[in-house]
């Protein structure tokens, strides 16, 4: 599932339209075919609605393509500035500062947690010894 809660598309709209046209053609040719809650008229109405949406979207694609390109270019500029500004804030406020943590998206705690601890001298584990014999 995508972040916006919609399902990811696993088919092409062109293929759906072609399949729907084939279904409608066969259904019309075989009028005895029935589906409990769907009639051929209902199906054709949905198919016509789908066609209208496809035409409307096709008419908007050139404008949308320009907007998508502009969004991508502006996003790149903003990302580069964010990196530079965060670096400057890290230098100015310090790596452990609340300000740097805020501009880092809260990743500072994770980065500190993932940092490898300094090498420590391990205390050797001695094997258990037997209890002294009773005298």
Characterization of this structure:
- This protein is mainly alpha-helical and 135 residues long.
- It has one domain (13-113).
- It is built from four helices and no strands.
- α1 packs antiparallel against α2 (40-93).
- It is elongated.
- The mean pLDDT is 81.
The share of residues in extended strands comes to under 5%
The dominant shape is: elongated
Q: Low-confidence spans: pLDDT under 50, at least 5 residues?
A: none
Largest sheet: none
The radius of gyration computed from the alpha-carbon positions, rounded to a whole number of angstroms, is 32 Å
- Secondary-structure class: mainly alpha
Helix content: 55-70%
Could you tell me the mean pLDDT? 81
List the helices and strands and how they pair.
Elements: H1 13-29, H2 40-93, H3 98-103, H4 107-114
Helix pairs in contact: 1-2
Give a quick set of tags describing it.
135 residues, mainly alpha, 4 helices, 0% strand
Condensed summary:
By secondary structure, this protein is mainly alpha-helical.
């Amino acid at each position: 599932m995508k972040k916006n809660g919609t399902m990811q598309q696993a088919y092409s709209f062109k293929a759906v339209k072609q399949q729907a046209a084939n279904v409608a053609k066969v259904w019309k040719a075989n009028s005895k075919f029935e589906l409990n809650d769907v009639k051929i008229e209902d199906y054709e109405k949905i198919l016509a609605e789908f066609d209208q949406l496809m035409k409307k979207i096709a008419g908007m694609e050139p404008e949308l393509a320009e907007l998508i390109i502009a969004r991508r270019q502006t996003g790149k500029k903003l990302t580069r500035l964010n990196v530079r500004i965060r670096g400057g804030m890290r230098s100015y406020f310090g790596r452990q500062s609340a300000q740097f943590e805020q501009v880092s998206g809260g990743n500072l705690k994770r980065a500190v947690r993932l940092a490898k601890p300094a090498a420590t001298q391990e205390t050797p584990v001695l094997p258990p010894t037997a209890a002294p014999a009773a005298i």
